[in-house]
Design goal:
Blueprint: E1 41-45, H1 71-74, E2 91-93, E3 98-106, E4 110-114, E5 117-131, H2 134-143, E6 153-164, E7 170-172, E8 175-181, E9 184-186, E10 192-194, E11 200-217, E12 225-230, E13 233-235, E14 238-241, E15 247-250
Parallel strand pairs: 1-11
Antiparallel strand pairs: 2-3, 3-5, 4-5, 5-6, 6-11, 7-11, 7-13, 8-9, 8-12, 10-11, 12-15, 13-14
């Protein structure tokens, strides 16, 4: 099972907009920016997945989280103050100065099963993230384990629910990988933040969660479909649920 260290998931682009989630953090992982704290619940929902990658950085300071967008932007009809982006073209800002615009959204409701677990993909979103401040750009690069990050950058977000049909609680290792193309794959060591990894799902329980990854820098990605595969699940570090096959999703 992958080693999961604790890290702030304040959000990966307010809608990741993928990601945005405000989970407690402690230590930045050198492999990913996941939250690894195992949380057992019958109906657990991860923190709001609507905020920018920059907000996930463990180095973000209170003073850096006071960005105020210009009035000319907040008065636009497509501006969503709450950050709950639902339609293509809608945009918002995070607290460190990242402009998050939803460019694509699909609701596949597709399921994938392995052993006692069923994975249901509910939403796929592509978000354009524009760092309006140096702090936003720097923190996003840190959260994505990059030495530098070109803005705008695009993030892909999956929202999904994991159902445990068994009587025994299991700890999921989250998403194994998201394949964007034959030459580009996101995983725990390569620009993927997965809020589900390390979470424990009670018997007959479920976990509503999300994952966000870096799709491209500067230019809008051209892929029409992606593939996702989930890793195994464990009880006392012993694998009891096998990894899944690849599931193809339309973007």
């Amino acid at each position: 099972m992958r080693l999961h260290q604790t890290l702030v998931l304040a959000g990966l682009s307010l809608l990741v907009l993928g990601l945005a989630g405000c989970q407690s953090s402690a230590q930045k992982s050198t492999t990913s920016f996941k939250n690894s704290s195992s949380q057992s619940s019958r109906h657990y929902s991860a923190a709001n997945p609507d905020a920018a990658v920059s907000a996930t950085s463990s180095s973000s300071s209170s003073e850096a989280q006071t960005y105020r967008p210009a009035a000319s932007q907040t008065k636009r009809a497509s501006y969503v103050k709450s950050g709950n982006l639902k339609k293509s073209g809608q945009f918002t800002y995070d607290k460190v100065g990242t402009r998050l615009q939803l460019t694509k959204v699909k609701h596949p409701q597709t399921t994938l099963k392995s052993g006692q677990l069923t994975y249901k993909i509910t939403t796929v979103r592509l978000i354009k993230n524009t760092a309006e401040t140096a702090a936003a750009k720097r923190m996003a690069a840190q959260a994505l384990n990059l030495s530098a990050l070109k803005s705008p950058y695009y993030t892909i977000q999956l929202k999904f629910t994991i159902y445990n049909h068994g009587k025994q609680a299991v700890t999921t290792d989250g998403i194994k990988a998201i394949r964007l193309s034959a030459n580009q794959q996101l995983n725990a060591t390569n620009q993927l933040s997965d809020a589900s990894a390390g979470k424990t799902i009670a018997g007959k329980g479920q976990l509503a969660t999300f994952a966000t990854g870096l799709a491209s820098e500067k230019t809008k990605p051209t892929f029409k479909t992606i593939k996702v595969a989930f890793a195994g699940a464990y009880v006392n570090q012993k694998q009891v649920v096998s990894p899944t096959d690849w599931l193809t999703l339309t973007v």
